[in-house]
Design goal:
Elements: E1 2-6, H1 10-22, E2 27-32, E3 43-46, H2 48-57, H3 59-68, E4 70-72, E5 75-79, E6 82-86, E7 91-95, H4 96-110, E8 113-116, H5 123-129, E9 132-135, H6 142-146, H7 148-151, E10 153-167, E11 174-181, E12 184-192, E13 198-205, H8 206-211, H9 229-238, H10 240-243, E14 248-249, E15 256-263, E16 267-268, E17 271-273, H11 288-305, H12 309-339, H13 349-357, H14 365-371, H15 373-387, E18 400-402, E19 405-407, E20 411-413, H16 428-439, E21 444-451, H17 468-484, E22 488-494, H18 505-508, E23 521-522, E24 536-537, H19 540-560, E25 564-569, H20 574-579, H21 594-597, H22 599-611, E26 618-623, H23 634-646, E27 651-655, H24 673-687, E28 690-694, H25 700-709, E29 714-717, H26 719-723, H27 727-734
Parallel strand pairs: 1-2, 1-9, 2-8, 5-11, 9-17, 20-21, 20-29, 21-22, 22-25, 23-24, 25-26, 26-27, 27-28, 28-29
Antiparallel strand pairs: 3-7, 4-7, 5-6, 10-13, 10-14, 10-15, 11-12, 12-13, 16-17, 18-19
Helix pairs in contact: 1-4, 1-11, 2-3, 2-11, 3-4, 11-12, 14-15, 16-17, 17-19, 19-22, 23-24
Protein name: Bifunctional salicylyl-CoA 5-hydroxylase/oxidoreductase
Pfam family, one: FAD_binding_3
Domain FAD-binding: 86-328
């Protein structure tokens, strides 16, 4: 093949070296507009997984990198005048300049043509004369920009300012310096990369940056490659304690806003993007260099394995996209955590450290316990001590008091519509469904959305509480839960609004009924989506009648014996649609600004709260974001939560979306928990109200991690309980917990231990005469370049 590579960074050079080794006959040219020594930045960090791939692909480069690595396992977090160390992580870093020189030398050895200080020819010309053109020209890619109509990039410019610097203070481990100043919180990400230097990245929210006067040079016309010397001098002054008498160095150092780059496509004909040209991930979870070199590995392998370029490029994108998108989700969580770091500075130091370490949701409690058991013990004890609880139990099995209601543990079975009622009456199916979940160990089991009127149903199969027959059937279910389990049972009340009169989920979710329709209503005559019924706009009289329906249903729910009531103000149903500017375009007192959109939901809440027994809690489920432009955002969710708490809500159950079919959710593991986290820290913590996290929480490790980090007080788990009705009890068995937070029904007591696994007669090694270096097994390994690395006692 004849290959043109635009960009002489690590990704482009590594790809060139790999392809030349796969076939020396490849004609490969790399264009780089900078000189070979024009290296911007300081150190780069690699994971063990990436290094394994590099070692398999090119042992020469791998050996060269290994000779230059700084290695360590510790993270030091400096916060409120204290330093906390967490071990067992595993890092390898080297100087960016050394890496580039190593890759340049390797390319020269292999016969790759390198053209430095030379802008690449037009991509159209290159595509016509080369078999493959690789855009490896970084975050500001000219290749991507020239073909934007094909790649369809999105560039998300973030809210914090950061600056790459270096220092001659050689850190022994990864450093997080969290500095509380009179202007706000600033942080430093620091790590060693050689025997003589460390990377020193200063970051802060733009508001803090302005208050601190760093904007004095905003808009200054700096020459290419020049640094913002005013800012560098100010950093030296502000971080003198952290530098500890050492120097800070600049190299094209200026304030930047991180830009998350995503592309709908990564290749077009014989043109392909790799590295930052295709995607970026925030520096707080690793290195863009790491991702670029992984791209290069995958692209070279796919070209080697497929007979044609189109098939190879499709395979490359298919292989790498899920990995990159997962990394970007983690990076998004991490960068948003640092953008909002001011929310967490009230936390007790151990919890703050755990929160920081688990910010991206990639590292969890179980990960940390495996890597550093002593730190995990401290996290457990700090969590228990802060709440006056027993420190022996996992966090999920610690009790919780919701108003006057005592819960045995912090696991909730989420409301899940079953669409299996007849005329709104729950039957044997609901008894078995909810009864099995209650006997499965959860602290609280929630009903599906119980509708307040026949017209308020989603489907003909929805349950209701608009008559006494329904109340009595619910009473049977509630009694079973109370008699046969330690769980409490909650009632979720709602009205379908514009999403009503639709088929059963398995017959066509959200599709209108083909016959026997009923009229749907909403705040405005706007359908939920294409093909949905157009709702009639509610009058004041309609709103009064619906509020009365909610009150009557609440009274019946209290008579049925429910322990808790949740008002459903999420997922685009009636009260949710009043809250959302996507569904509510009213021009009266119930539309327009958020305060007006809140008016009717708050009226319903107040009426329900008054009708519901005072000693039993009332909570509210909200959609924290509409996932569409011009819809509600997490900032609106904070104000919505604040309003309901001010009116007496005991908890906010934080879901998201389902307000419009046009939504574009950012699905992923625990993807909704950042919204709960924000509400808890900005509103609920100061008021005593609880926050419930929900949304793709799939493991007990996730639950424990969220609770220990202080992102939520309770966790609602839905689909996982459908997969395993005894999930909570099984989680206790997996964690070897036996206590009041997970009481097995006496009839099932024999199953309260994890079944034995398969046995084997293989003889296990008894002695190891050739023992590994103890330093390699240490939890705490520091970078000490003046001598062999040694474990910290």
């Amino acid at each position: 093949m004849k290959i043109a590579i635009i960009g002489g960074g690590p990704g482009g050079l590594y790809f060139a070296a790999l392809m030349k080794q796969l076939d020396p006959a490849h004609d490969i040219t790399v264009w780089e507009r900078n000189a070979p020594d024009d290296t911007f930045g300081f150190g780069v960090v690699f994971s063990d997984e990436t290094l394994g791939g590099i070692e398999n692909a090119d042992t020469t480069i791998a050996r060269g990198m290994a000779r230059r690595f700084a290695r360590w396992t510790d993270i030091d977090i400096h916060y409120r005048g204290e330093s906390h160390t967490v071990g067992g992580q595993g890092f390898a870093a080297m100087g960016r300049k050394e890496l580039l020189h190593l890759l340049q030398e390797r390319c020269h050895e292999l016969g790759v043509t390198l053209r430095f200080s030379t802008p690449a020819p037009d991509t159209g010309r290159l595509r016509a004369s080369y078999d493959l053109v690789v855009g490896a020209d970084g975050v500001n890619s000219l290749v991507r920009a020239a073909h934007a109509e094909v790649f369809r990039p999105s560039l998300d410019r973030r809210h914090s300012k950061y600056m790459w610097l270096g220092t001659d203070r050689v850190f022994e481990a990864f450093q997080f310096f969290v500095k509380q100043t009179e202007w706000g919180v600033m942080q430093v990400h620091g790590y060693p990369y050689s025997a003589t230097g460390s990377t020193f990245i200063v970051e802060m929210h733009e508001d803090v940056w302005r208050r601190a006067g760093f904007d004095a040079t905003e808009g200054a016309d700096l020459a290419p490659g020049a640094s913002d010397e005013h800012a560098v001098a100010r950093v030296r002054e502000l971080f003198a304690d952290e530098l500890d008498g050492h120097q800070v160095f600049a190299n094209n150092s200026k304030w930047l806003n991180f830009t998350t780059v995503r592309n709908e496509r990564w290749h077009h004909g014989n043109l392909v993007l790799i590295g930052d040209a295709a995607h970026t991930a925030h520096f707080s979870i690793g290195s863009g260099t790491k991702l670029a070199m992984e791209d290069a590995l995958a692209l070279a392998a796919c070209l080697h394995e497929h007979p044609d370029a189109e098939g190879a490029l499709t395979a490359y994108e298919t292989e790498r996209r899920p990995v990159v998108e997962s990394t970007q989700r983690a990076a998004q969580g991490s960068l948003e955590w640092f953008e909002n770091i001011g929310m967490y500075v009230h936390q007790e130091p151990t919890q703050f450290c755990f929160n920081l370490l688990t910010r991206s949701r990639r590292i969890t409690y179980d990960n940390l316990r495996t890597r550093d058991p002593e730190f995990a013990d401290r996290v457990d004890m700090a969590f228990a001590a802060a709440q006056g609880l027993d420190g022996v139990a996992p966090a999920m099995f610690q009790p919780y008091r919701l108003g006057e209601l005592e819960l045995r543990n912090r696991v909730i079975v989420s409301p899940m519509d079953m669409y299996s009622a007849v005329d709104g009456v729950p039957g044997d199916f609901h008894l078995v469904h909810l009864g099995s979940k209650a006997m499965g160990g959860a602290g609280l089991v929630m009903t599906e959305m119980v509708c307040v009127s026949p017209e308020g149903r989603i489907t003909p199969g929805c349950t209701g509480l608009w008559n006494d027959e329904q109340r009595d059937s619910w009473r049977r279910i509630v009694s079973f839960v109370h008699q046969r389990s330690t769980a409490r049972i909650g009632l979720q009340l709602g009205h379908s609004g514009r999403k009503g009169s639709t088929r059963l989920m398995w017959e066509g979710m959200d599709d209108p009924l083909p016959r026997d329709n009923w009229e749907v209503v909403g705040p405005s005559p706007l359908p939920y989506g294409p093909g949905s019924a157009v709702p009639r706009e509610l009058t004041r009289a309609d709103m009064d009648r619906i509020a009365e329906d909610f009150v009557a249903a609440a009274r019946r729910g209290a008579e049925a014996g429910f322990d808790l009531l949740e008002l459903h103000c999420a997922h685009g149903y009636l009260l949710s649609s009043f809250l959302s500017p996507i569904a509510n375009r009213r021009t009266d007192a119930y539309g327009g600004p958020l305060a007006n959109r809140l008016r009717f939901p708050l009226e319903v809440f107040d009426a329900v709260r008054e009708a519901w027994p005072a000693e039993r809690p009332v909570i509210v489920r909200i959609s924290a974001t509409d996932w569409v432009p011009d819809g509600n955002t997490e900032h609106d969710a904070v104000e919505i939560a604040r309003a309901f708490i001010a009116h007496g809500a005991d908890a906010i159950d934080v879901s998201s979306g389902q307000v419009t079919k046009d939504e574009r959710p950012a699905f992923g593991r625990s993807y909704q928990t950042p919204f709960a986290d924000r509400i808890r820290h900005e509103v609920a913590a100061a008021t005593g109200a609880a926050v419930i996290a929900v949304g793709a929480i799939a493991s007990y490790d996730d639950v424990n991690s969220l609770l220990l980090a202080g992102r939520a007080d309770l966790c609602a788990v839905g689909r996982t309980h459908l997969y395993d009705p005894h999930w909570t009890l099984h989680a206790a068995a997996e964690q070897e917990y036996r206590g009041p937070g997970a009481a097995w029904p006496v009839q099932f007591g024999a199953g309260g231990r994890k079944p034995p696994a398969a046995r084997t007669d293989a003889i296990r090694p008894r002695l190891s005469l050739l023992r590994p270096d103890p330093a390699d097994q240490a939890v705490h390994l520091r970078w000490t370049p003046t001598r062999a690395p040694a474990p910290v006692p």
